[in-house]
Design goal:
40% of the residues are buried. With 470 residues, this protein is of the alpha/beta class. Helix 4 crosses helix 6, helix 11 runs antiparallel to helix 12 and helix 14 packs antiparallel against helix 15. The chain starts with a strand and ends with a strand. 47% of the residues lie in helices and 15% in strands. Bound molecules: adenosine monophosphate (AMP) and zinc ion (ZN). The site of adenosine monophosphate (AMP) has 17 residues, from helix 1 and strand 9.
């Protein structure tokens, strides 16, 4: 399998550290409001990549963090007059709900920065001991870029470019930097901000050290793959390498994968520019699987421009997939057990060719665009070559292929969501009330669970039972 490695700037063969296992870290969102569909791009493309690794039989240890201490969270908390953790906990919950809607497999671990402060302090202390960091008179700890001759090896930037890319150059208290490229590992608290005790001052960690520590703790000092959006190459990932390698003396990561931006009108979708759609905006209009198909319709490193036309194309494609699986399921329930016909044997050979195309595409640096094309070919063959005369073996085999590739790898659910009508819900609730009256609590609980599985929550109130969609 080939991966385009940002550091080597070319496609290289993927060889894991440990046979059959992959240790992968994906930088997650800063949780101060609902995630937008730009944030959804790394989530979806790397979830798909992980699913493909699992399809190939790898055991994947997949870690993705939540950045839950940050100026933006603190500002949002001040605006609402609540504690920062009220904001971060709320948006972690909302983010997990969006992830579930988008069928993103939960990570093996979703660490939160605020729960890993002790480990960060230890790592910073190691960097000071190793001569890679220094403490300024106000207690700020800086990483010394001059102490690291390899600094810049990921982004391949020269010093001028680095200077212009610095996010935190003007943050107050940074006047004491020895070199403008030095970056913060620990900063003193400000009035009204969350803080932790440390050997240097009461304060909080810089952003970059979070990921270095969470990656080390959950995946070890050297990992296989580190991923995120391309805006993270510099300074975030460059700094992670400097910190992790400075602390451990070992290579930090073997492969660096970065997704291109999701744009609107060819400009990056971003919260700070205000030109974004939340995942929630989109999923109120489209099935989340349509968003998934749209995002995977481009190779992950290329820019992808969001448009209604492309979303509608993805919607039509999703409908085609669902119509095909509906038809196959219907045929399967009636099909006869009989020998495969010659036509069916030919169909199988054709589909096997498209399965190879699908795998070749995924082996070629996670090329989901070509993998989707292979799926559409399979759907075409399945539609054209099946009818009431088809053998059960052929129909079931087609269903299992679609299930493996579409549900399994692309993460696009092929079971049609059956929206329950309000009156059907009410009928079930009446039946549950009757069951309770008759002291048939087993049946009553069954109905509650059935409704719950469809996202309908019951509340017993004085005025009777009320229900809402969760
Ligand atoms: P943030 O919350 O801004 O740190 O972003 C979380 C993740 O989303 C990072 O991997 C970013 O690189 C990625 N990201 C943010 N905006 C976009 C965008 N418009 N297109 C693609 N990825 C993005
Ligand atoms: Zn990170």
């Amino acid at each position: 399998m080939k991966i385009f490695d940002t550091m080597q700037r070319r496609k290289v063969d993927f060889v894991p550290i440990e046979e059959g296992k992959v240790r992968m870290y994906v930088c997650g969102p800063t949780v101060y409001n609902l995630i937008h569909i730009g944030n959804a791009r790394p989530m979806i493309v790397f979830d798909t990549f992980r699913r493909y690794l699992e399809y190939k039989g790898y055991k994947v240890n997949y870690v993705s963090n939540f950045t839950d201490v940050d100026d933006k969270i603190i500002n949002a908390a001040k605006e609402e007059g609540v504690a920062p953790e009220v904001i971060s906990e709320r948006y972690i919950r909302e983010c997990k709900r969006d992830m579930e809607d988008m069928n993103i497999e939960p990570a093996t671990v979703h660490p939160q920065a605020t729960k890993e402060i002790d480990g960060m302090i230890e790592m910073i202390q190691k960097l000071i001991d190793n001569g890679h960091a220094y403490v300024a008179s106000d207690g700020t700890v800086y990483f010394s870029v001059a102490s690291d001759p390899d600094y810049g090896k990921l982004s391949h930037k020269n010093m001028d470019e680095m200077m212009s890319g610095l996010r935190d150059l003007k943050v107050s208290g940074e006047e004491q930097k020895k070199d403008p490229n030095d970056f913060v590992l620990w900063k003193p608290k400000k009035e009204g901000e969350p803080y932790w005790d440390s050997p240097w001052c009461q304060g909080r960690p810089g952003w970059h050290i979070e990921c270095s520590e969470m990656s080390r703790k959950y995946l070890g000092e050297t990992i296989d793959i580190h991923a995120g959006g391309e805006d993270l190459i510099f300074p975030h990932h460059e700094n992670e390498i400097a910190q992790s390698e400075g602390a451990s003396g070992k290579p930090f990561c073997h492969y660096w994968m970065h997704n291109g931006f999701l744009n609107i009108n060819n400009r990056k979708m971003s919260k700070s520019e205000g030109n974004f759609f939340t995942v929630r905006d989109i999923t109120s209009q489209y099935d989340p699987m349509v968003l998934r198909l749209f995002i995977l319709s481009a190779q992950y490193r290329t820019p992808l421009n969001f448009s209604k036309e492309l979303m509608d194309q993805a919607k039509a494609a999703y409908e085609r997939i669902l119509n095909c699986t509906d038809k196959l399921k219907e045929l399967s329930s009636k099909a006869e057990e009989k020998e495969l016909s010659e036509e069916e044997k030919k169909g199988m050979e054709a589909v096997k060719g498209f399965i190879r195309d699908f795998e070749d595409a995924m082996e070629d640096d996670n090329n989901t665009a070509n993998a989707e094309s292979a799926v559409y070919e399979i759907i075409r063959v399945a539609n054209a070559g099946t009818d009431a005369d088809s053998s059960k073996e052929y129909v079931d085999w087609l269903l299992s292929v679609i299930h493996k590739l579409v549900d399994g790898v692309l993460g696009v659910r092929t079971d049609r969501k059956t929206e329950m009508l309000d009156e059907d819900i009410e009928k079930l609730i009446e039946e549950r009330q009757a069951a309770r009256k008759a002291k048939n609590f087993g049946r009553a609980d069954e109905i509650r669970d059935q409704l719950l599985s469809m996202g309908i929550v019951l509340e017993d109130t004085r005025e009777g039972v009320k229900w809402k969609k969760a």
